[in-house]
Protein: HTH cro/C1-type domain-containing protein
Organism: Lacticaseibacillus sharpeae JCM 1186 = DSM 20505
Amino acid sequence: MINMIENLGPNVKRLREKHDMTQEQLAQAIEVQPNTISKIERNKRSPSFDTLNRLARFFNVTPVDLLGSPDEQEIQSIPAILDRVDEYLPKLKEVHQLTHQLEDFSPRQIDYLVDQINEIAKFFAPYIEMDEDGIPLNLDHNGRVIESPSHYRQLPVKEIDRIYQEIEAIKTFNQDKFNPE
């Protein structure tokens, strides 16, 4: 348990700095005295369970992220990484096949494809909404910029799929009607 407490201070400091916060801002956010954060980060004070809970909730992290060593934190992420590898393996095989097909493309065709892929990728990436002066519109209670989900997530995908199914049904009906066997 002593090693876990020794890890707490550096981990809190790392998380705070990762969020570009001062000790005072963090103290205000989790409703503790400003010197409490300083003492926790320097391992001069052990936080209460309530303060630990507030820190974990504020940073949206697990106990291992707060109390674990860097090695323990790495080990914790391994199952998620392995799941992603299994999920992406079939997709990687498709990419490998595409690279062989691209060998027949001219450099100009490849440049065009790269530009098109970059435009598509922007559609799926989170973005920061800005006003006409380039100032971010969405800020959290600490003044940090909040990213909006991708444009794709805002699409009514189920509605689009329903309409697509209706169009396909109409096309099938028309083909059957005008192309009797």
